[in-house]
Amino acid sequence: MTAAEDNTPGTTEVFDVAVVGAGPTGLLIAGDLAATGLSVTLLERRPRTAANLTRAFAVHARTLELLDARGLADELVSTGRRIDRLRPFAGMALSLQRLRSRYPFVLITPQYETEKLLERRALSTGVDIQYDCQVIGLRQDRETVTLDVQDARDVDDAADVVDGQEPQDPQGARRRIHARHVVGADGVRSTVRDRLGLPFPGRAVVRSMVLADIRLTDPPEDTLTANGTAEAFAFLVPFGDGWYRAIAWSPDGRAQDTDPVDLDELRALTRAALGTDHGMHDPRWMSRFHSDERQVPHYRVGRVFLAGDAAHVHSPAGGLGMNTGLQDAANLSWKLAAVLHGQTPDPEALLDSYHRERHPVGRLVLRISGALVRAVITDNSALRTARRLGAGLLARLGPAQDRALGLVSGIGIAYPPPPGTRRPTPAGRRAPDVPLAPAPQASPAPQAPHATRLYEALRAGGFVLITPPGAATPPGTPLAHHHWATERRTACVLVRPDGYIAWSAPRADDAEIASAVAGWLLPGSGGAQKA
After folding, report:
1. pLDDT tens digit string along 332-381?
2. Nearest C-alpha neighbor of 222 from the set 233, 204, 235, 232
3. Burial (CB count within 10 angstroms: exposed 0-12, middle 13-18, buried 19+), residue 512
4. 161 pLDDT exceeds 80?
């Protein structure tokens, strides 16, 4: 399908997928889908020239691996500063060098750098990005989702579309978009979630948090500085260009998000937490907000999906928000593409697996970030003593430290194996970036012909089969078939497009390999099919 060219009021446009929200999550999903040849529109309320004032600045190892699978990680790394040691609070230090990843660090870079990179990729793959517009209505049937869209400048003059009824105000440009699927990645105040009638249960956990980008006369020695006392918490991290992100709050803060914030308040909070404000000066922007813990009960409703902050929101502790959203996107995009291209034997089960895999991860992230923020801001002396003792113990216990780092970095996140899979099994686990023999066998799927490691091979956008030399490629199957870099390895592994293991066996003959692949991919499938 291709989009209609006429964008005059009342026009109906048709796409394979409509994504609502052009933050990092929406941009990644849209770019992934368009890269497979699907027609995709991306709807964003902000004007094209408006800065997206966002709070994310940390890119964790697993997110960098997923960007590496798209050929984007190295460019993003060049925009920021690497941190290889985390200090969540005084007395605790975790070395990220323990991570078994190509990216054993946290990348500190403003979110706009991530968005610029993903927007450029989305445009290069053919995504139709429509800024300055808002979804005001959503309906779906068994085959199509219909969105009612209005220019942002006219939204305030129009009533909502409810139950298929047109807005009462005849003024303002409106159009209708039909899509086979819709993804709501439109943030905490998601219109898509609201139109689906889904609740967003949870509560506020931190009130009156102050954020700013500032300069420091006397920078701290540690790359990342954070500490909490009974009076305040403060966090400082450098972007690497002379600017620092500062976050601070007081447990008894009562200011509203709309109340003004000034540098003196930030200085006072930082001194209470760190003992010094490090000579803060010249803020380029300052903001006040509160932090909620919320999660929607269903990530899928019919042909509509929720991802990122539209599905889950939590405290900024751990820098997990944007990363979790991007990992939602990587999980969902290949599944939608496989269904729309007719490449999967069980479309409904594959689409349902998005909620089955990602909802528990969202719940886990809420628990991790919630535990971190509560440990930081507690004013209970006994709990603060327990925190100090626990931090010292964790730093001395390697396996416990590895577990903690794996959860925060995303490296240790795994999905439940497919129903009916014999246990124990590596299916559902993250696939490490193993070396490959450089010459892949011929395949009907796009290849990364010079791939010498798994995440280079994943840049083709499909499944990757890794076997010893001599194994046959399942005929007509859209995957990339590579061999191990060493002939001593006998295992056979099928890796999903999002870098997780679909199937694995210590040894397998051609018939066993073909049977395993057939459980995920249909032979001879190609262009978009009705789904």
Report:
1. 999 999 999 999 999 999 999 999 999 999 999 988 887 776 666 655 56
2. 235
3. middle
4. no
